[in-house]
Amino acid sequence: MSHVSPSPSEYNSSLVGNASTNGTEPENESKLLTSPLIILMSFMCLLIVSENGLIIFLMYRKKILRTLTNMFLTSLALSDLTSGLARMPLLFICMEMDVSIIVCVASTVFNRFTAISSVCHVLLIAADRYIFIVHDMKYRAFVTKRRAVVATIAVWLISILASVVQLSWYIFHGLEIGDRNALMDDLNKQYGFACIVLFFAGPFLLIFYIYGRIFYISYKLNQNDRKRIRTYNYKQPSGSLRHEWRGRSVLLITLIIFGGCWLPYFFTVLHDHMSSSEDSTIPIWSQRLQICLGFIPMMLNPILCTLAKKDFRHALKEIVIGRNSLRHFNQDISLQTTRERFRTIDSESERN
């Protein structure tokens, strides 16, 4: 089967077959999608759809949430929601049913699209946070509505084009999907290498730098706060320490999930395109693990990127509890924004 179709690393349908003819190999060892794995994936998809659907619902119901930053988060939620709705059904149909190779190609392209889209959205959100924290006073001038819309559309276009560009080589050269020759093998190797560089290594290094910088600035600001508290003999609120460690934990968990979940996927894409054989050398258990890891970012993105924000938590609480706490919510947000701006001004004056 072609590298465009689901390959060993990308859920090759040839791996889903009957047990060996001699009957000595257990079925669950030769079959990629076992019943427990299907149940687990179905549960994960249900969580993905529920969580990301909730984010989109909150944005629809609460106009106060419709900020530029939250627009990026909603775009990520829409991407993850699409993945939860279509990724598992396409994979199951390709693996378990006797269907055309086009369905399996669509499954592979869609898997690749959701991976690239998730990576690009997380990078865009990290860049937005970096500008807000490091260049706080210039944020509104730099991050305009027009630029935010253009950036969001660009993420979707890049994700779509990067996912389907491989098909254009077969169309341009007049080859059937499934045909292999030296030219296609060379192009596929270059494509696999470009994927891991452009959509994993590059974004991971940028996100590591951005969150490292944010972590450092947060540490310096909190250090300055402690100095002022000691100078004026104030008592530091216990909640500020919890908020500080919670923010650092979110940044650390985001980096771990990004690296731990997407590295196996892009590594297997590279492995598939660098391999000269159509037979997979990756163990079945490793492929099953990689499938599950691919669902984890879509499941945790709503919690780490969106529901960890105070405005979304207040909006959710208001809908669930049914209390009209909008006035108190606006006061909290206003006080929090004012406090952050004064801390930024103090840090800038100290640096100067």
UniProtKB/TrEMBL annotation:
Where is the protein found, in the record's own terms?
Answer: Cell membrane
Q: In what ranges is there compositional bias, type Polar residues?
A: 1-25
Q: GO molecular-function annotation terms?
A: G protein-coupled receptor activity
CDD domains of this UniProt entry? 7tm_classA_rhodopsin-like
Q: Tell me which residues make up the G-protein coupled receptors family 1 profile domain.
A: 51-305
User: Which terms in the GO cellular component ontology are assigned?
Assistant: plasma membrane
- Disordered: annotated span: 1-29
Transmembrane spans = 37-60, 72-93, 99-127, 148-171, 191-211, 250-267, 287-308
* Record key words, sorted: Cell membrane, G-protein coupled receptor, Membrane, Receptor, Transducer, Transmembrane, Transmembrane helix
Q: How does it sit in the membrane?
A: Multi-pass membrane protein
Which coarse location class applies to the principal site listed for this UniProt protein? Answer: membrane
- Say which family it is in: Belongs to the G-protein coupled receptor 1 family.
**Name of the protein in its database record:** G-protein coupled receptors family 1 profile domain-containing protein
From which organism does this entry originate? Pocillopora meandrina
